Amino acid sequence: MDHADASTRVAYPTQVWSWSRARREVELAKCVVRCHTCHVTKSRIAGDLSLKGIRNGNAKLTVEQVREIRASPQSTRILADAFDMSHAQIWRIRTRKKWTWLE
Predict the structure, then answer these.
(1) How is 14-50 classified by DSSP, letter by letter?
(2) Mean of the pLDDT values across residues 23-51?
């Protein structure tokens, strides 16, 4: 499920199942069914980066820090200590498996 207009989103469809039926139906009525490829394409075209980078409540890094990690000649282990992250997470950032949207 995907919100046809992201600006009308009150919550993500996965969060609505604990709501009352009436409230859930109002939110789901704003959604359309899309395959993953179409959802990603629509989101990129619309510039919907609402959960990317520091907009994601779980993000530990800023865009500038990710760029610093990618540009740094230091070892992954040193960077992991410096940013208080796991070696694996730093590796994923450097190999663009995380923060993939960031050029």
Answers:
(1) GGGGGS-HHHHHHHHTTEE---HHHHHHHHHHHT--T
(2) 75
